[in-house]
Specification:
Order of helices and strands of chain A: HEEEEEEEEEEE
Helix content of chain B: 40-55%
Strand content of chain A: 35-45%
Largest interface: A-B, 52 and 60 residues
Structural class of chain A: alpha/beta
Structural class of chain B: alpha+beta
Strand order of the largest sheet of chain B: 15-27-26-25-16-23-24
Shape of chain B: elongated
Strand order of the largest sheet of chain A: 1-5-11-10-7-8
Radius of gyration of chain B: 36 Å
Distance between the termini of chain B: 39 Å
Oligomer: heterodimer
Distance between the termini of chain A: 58 Å
Strand content of chain B: 15-25%
Number of strands of chain A: 11
Largest sheet of chain B: 7 strands, mixed
């Protein structure tokens, strides 16, 4: 094999390793919900090609208000589904939609778009 | 969206309704949710709550600080909703009875509009990109002629090269001037066109891909963005610094027209998918459109057309023939035939008279009438159905789990595969390794379609729940639908499910030679039973009234649970009931024994009548089976299901009913708790059990069953208690629902199979697995066409369910 071929091979393997590390192992930014005067844990999640922040940490047995701020037209993100809470909500384009829930159990609860492609996580802790 | 509008609900419910023995108690109450303004802390909340609870007529008041509203349950005969508003205002906070809640409808309408806009935009972008793509192909043609000779290289994509070579003679004849341009000019013109298409039509792919990437996630946009972006950057370098490539023995290939065509094809696929997806919710849209915009109400003695949102509970509404009924209510004067087919699937109009319930959204056919508005806004039957359907369509079927898991890791894996493809080709190809490696890697990125997996189950679920709703079958969600597809045993409650649920007197048999005539017996027994609330007693009283008999007031009355009743009417001692009751009074039944056996054998419930300790005759009551039951049960049998009847009746009566209905398996003499035990016993034996009942007195059994079917109701209680609610009061809906569930599961499996197989086969083919043997290398253009077709085909397959025969 030529030097060029060796370089391509090593570069390729390194890129594959980096992709898998970046998407599966690298730590995502976890956002803690802010608690307002009424004792409601509130987080605004921007919907644009995904959920930002995608991981939200909240406390158990305390009301949670998630404000989804959808900043795109893509049909992919028009709905958000919290399967564990039986919640499905349409998110109007360039609008904010509130979802309110009170988690009674601790754990990691995934929320997704209508087609499960966009994903986020609600971490409920004591 | 108004999330805090008042929701009015007036309910009249029969409580304490337990199985065969029923005691009717009627309570009237109303619920209203009033938005409250100005509350800032828990103290405000407590103040408003205290004020409301202090009002007489308020049954329960709950003030929610977060939602800024007060949910009040009250007795409308004691206090009005306006008085509640006043009570809140007196505490210093703002309150107003807003328009009726339209959340479900509005949400659906907004979603429809957004989907329509998205479709139009995609269609526009796809068609313009397609046109630009054709222009780019034409501009690329002169470059082909200089292949190998010019620094700006040939058209790299093999499919495009083939297509353009075929068109070259025609272009040469029509536009020979095109060949006068230098390759340099043409290359830069192509670059500009590609940049235009990428920056305008395909912009969202790159924006979303970048946005996802920043947050460690990747989706379909990532694949498209990386695929087309890499091809574009390669082409730009080949255009600007071709020497860089040539000096390293790599041809400076151009992929401009391929990039444009890929974007155009993917946009076309997205547009088709958006249109098809819109069709999956057509049934839901149809339901939303049932809601009329205005209502004619009587206000201050005058007729007035008002917006339906402004109709208040208890308003008198006027409906003329041919008009749609604006809100739920109860007829107070007039009569008509009402077409309820859009909600119940019942094809014949239903006769409605004073006191009958009306459902908003149905059509008045013949007469004019006035009615009193009852449930409004999000508590109306139509809103319940719309909400139920929206929830169902957004729910997850367990079968989707695998697709969800694969979707979550799909894109990074495809990115890895694309790189592995590039490296493999670069290292192993004898000729033009860089070009082949690049084409194959781009093809891998473009052909991979996570969307088909994501669409496989939800689209089928949407079409199926919509189709069900059109036929009056409301399925609660994906899980219920999946379980319904696996049912092998259907347990039917007898009363009200197989039978009409309204017993009638069929035979009155005086003992031979008795001084009491048939009429005497009916009059006396009815006079006694008038004090009872048992359904059999009600049947006897109704029968006497139909005979225009004048009933006496019983001097005494005693109910003997499970046996009958005793008492004194006009000085005679009466006992009416079963064998056990008679043996308690040592009444000789020999004379009527055979007759009673015969009546029980006909599915009737015989009751002995003893007067002053002597047997005087018999009265038989029967609950006739519904005309549709037998045929529906045959349908269930044809589906290969075991049909079981559960009843509290005597075994002989039960067997007779079962025979009439065509049921082989009967469990008689079952108490309400026994129904749950029977369902559980069958589940333990490995059967997947559906329980069909009226949704109220069968609630525990409905909950225990794998799938609970509530039949013949549209009430919120029944919808809550069951997995499937049948709006029509016949058993055909059970067979239709099971058949629909089976068809839907088949469609979901087909979709998932196709989505997986497409990717499992498509990706290796794009990577060039067929090349060593067959010399086939897939062009990225064909890959993009396949990708677009893949997700569209899944949606189209789901749409086939709309035409599936389920009855």
């Amino acid at each position: 094999m030529s030097t060029m071929e060796w370089m391509v091979m090593i570069g390729g393997i390194a890129t594959i390793l980096w992709i898998n590390w970046y998407f599966f192992l690298a730590r995502q930014v976890v956002s803690n919900a802010a608690i307002d005067l009424e004792g409601v844990q509130e987080v605004t999640i921007v919907v644009e090609g995904g959920y930002h922040p995608a991981v939200v940490r909240v406390k158990r047995e305390q009301p949670v208000r998630l404000i989804f701020d959808r900043r795109e037209r893509s049909g992919c993100s028009e709905e958000v589904v919290f399967a564990d809470f039986g919640i499905r909500k349409f998110l109007p384009t360039f609008g904010k939609t509130q979802i309110e829930l009170t988690p009674s159990q601790t754990g990691h609860f995934t929320f997704t778009c209508g087609m499960s492609m966009l994903r986020g996580q609600l971490i409920v802790q004591d | 969206m108004p999330t805090t509008s008042p929701l009015m609900l007036t309910e009249t419910r029969n409580l304490a309704d337990t199985s065969e023995t029923r005691a009717h108690t009627t309570t009237t109450r109303a619920k209203v949710t009033i938005p409250v303004k100005g509350m800032t802390c828990a103290a405000c909340q407590a103040r408003v709550q205290r004020a409301l609870q202090g009002e007489s007529g308020v049954i329960d008041a709950s003030v929610n600080l977060m939602l800024k509203n007060a949910a009040v349950t009250y007795d409308p005969q004691m206090i009005s909703s306006m008085a509640l508003v006043e009570a809140i205002r007196e505490t210093g906070y703002g309150a107003e009875l807003a328009a009726q809640d339209q959340t479900s409808f509005e949400e659906q309408e907004v979603q429809d509009r957004a989907q329509e806009e998205e479709y139009r935009e995609l269609r526009y972008k796809a068609s313009l990109s397609g046109v630009v793509g054709l222009v780019a192909m034409v501009l690329s043609m002169p470059l082909m002629g200089v292949a190998g000779a010019d620094a700006h290289g040939p058209v790299a994509d093999p499919f495009m090269r083939w297509a353009m070579e075929s068109m070259t003679p025609a272009i040469r004849a029509v536009a020979p001037w095109l060949y006068a341009f230098t390759p340099w000019v043409l290359s830069y013109a192509l670059l500009a066109l590609t940049l235009l298409v990428m920056g305008w039509a395909g912009r969202h792919f790159y924006v979303r891909a970048w946005s996802a990437f920043r947050h460690h996630s990747a989706d379909m946009n990532t694949l498209i963005a990386v695929g087309t972006g890499a091809a574009f950057l390669y082409s730009v370098l080949a255009t600007v610094v071709p020497e860089f490539f040539l000096s390293r023995g790599v041809p400076p290939d151009l992929y401009y027209e391929a990039v444009i065509m890929i974007i155009a094809l993917i946009l076309t696929g997205n547009a088709l998918e958006a249109r098809a997806k819109r069709q999956t919710s057509a049934a839901l849209r149809g339901l939303v459109e049932l809601q009329p915009r205005t209502a004619r109400v009587v206000r201050d003695g005058a007729e007035e057309d008002i917006l339906v949102e402004n109709v208040q509970s208890k308003d008198i509404v006027i409906v003329r023939p041919g008009e749609r009924i604006p809100v739920d209510g109860e007829i107070i004067s007039g009569a008509s035939a009402v077409d309820e087919s859009m909600l119940t699937g019942e094809s014949l109009p239903v006769e409605k008279h004073s006191g009958d319930r009306l459902i908003g959204g149905t059509i008045n056919r013949t007469g004019a009438f006035r009615y009193r508005a009852t449930t409004l806004g999000s508590d109306s039957v139509l809103a319940h159905i719309v909400k139920l359907m929206r929830d169902a369509q957004g729910s997850r079927a367990p079968i989707q789990k695998l697709a969800d898991q694969v979707s979550g890791i799909f894109v990074p894996i495809v990115l890895s595969l694309a790189i592995a493809t590039f490296v493999t080709w670069f290292v192993t190809a004898d000729q033009a390794p860089a070009m082949r490696a690049f084409a194959a890697a781009v093809a891998v990125l473009i052909i991979a379609c996570p969307c088909a997996m994501g669409l496989a189950v939800p689209t089928a679920l949407m079409v199926a729940t919509g189709k069900g709703a059109e036929r009056g079958i409301l399925i609660k969600g994906g899980e219920a639908l999946q379980r319904a597809g696996q049912i092998n045993t259907v347990v039917l409650d007898k009363t009200g499910t197989i039978t009409e649920g309204r017993p009638t007197v069929t035979d009155v048999v005086p003992v031979l030679g008795s001084k009491w005539s048939e009429k005497d017996l009916v009059r006396l027994v009815a006079s006694l039973e008038a004090s009872s609330e048992h359904p059999l007693a009600e049947a006897i009283v109704r029968y006497a009234q139909e005979q225009s008999l004048i009933l006496e007031t019983a001097e005494s009355f005693q109910s003997v649970t499970g046996q009958g009743a005793t008492g004194v009417v006009q000085g005679v001692a009466l006992a009416v009931g079963n064998e056990a009751l008679m043996s308690g009074y040592a009444v000789d039944l020999t004379e009527t024994k055979a007759g009673a056996e015969r009546l029980a054998g006909e599915g009737k419930t015989p009751m002995y009548i003893a007067i002053n300790g002597q047997l005087a005759g018999m009265i038989a009551v029967a609950d006739p089976i519904k005309p549709t039951s037998r045929e529906a049960i045959q349908q269930l049998n044809r589906l290969g299901l075991t049909v079981v009847m559960l009843t509290g009746d005597h075994p002989r009566t039960a067997e007779a009913i079962a025979r009439q209905a065509g049921i082989d398996h009967v469990v008689a003499g079952v108490l309400p708790e026994g129904k749950v035990l029977e369902v559980r016993r069958r589940q333990r034996a490995g059967e997947v059990v559906a329980m069909v009942g009226d949704g109220i007195n069968d609630a525990p059994a409905l909950a225990q069953a794998d799938v609970g079917f509530a039949i013949g109701t549209g009430t919120d209680i029944a919808i809550e208690a069951s997995d499937v609610t049948l709006m029509r009061n016949d058993l055909h809906g059970v067979a239709s629902a099971i058949l629909l569930a089976r068809r839907t599961m088949r469609t979901m499996k087909q979709n998932l199979f196709w989505a997986f197989v497409y990717n499992v086969v498509g990706i290796p083919v794009a990577a060039g697995i067929l090349y060593p043997v067959f010399g086939i290398l897939l062009s990225p253009i064909l890959a993009s066409a396949a990708m677009a077709f893949s997700s569209v085909s899944v949606v189209m397959n789901s749409l086939r369910l709309r035409r599936a025969r389920v009855a």
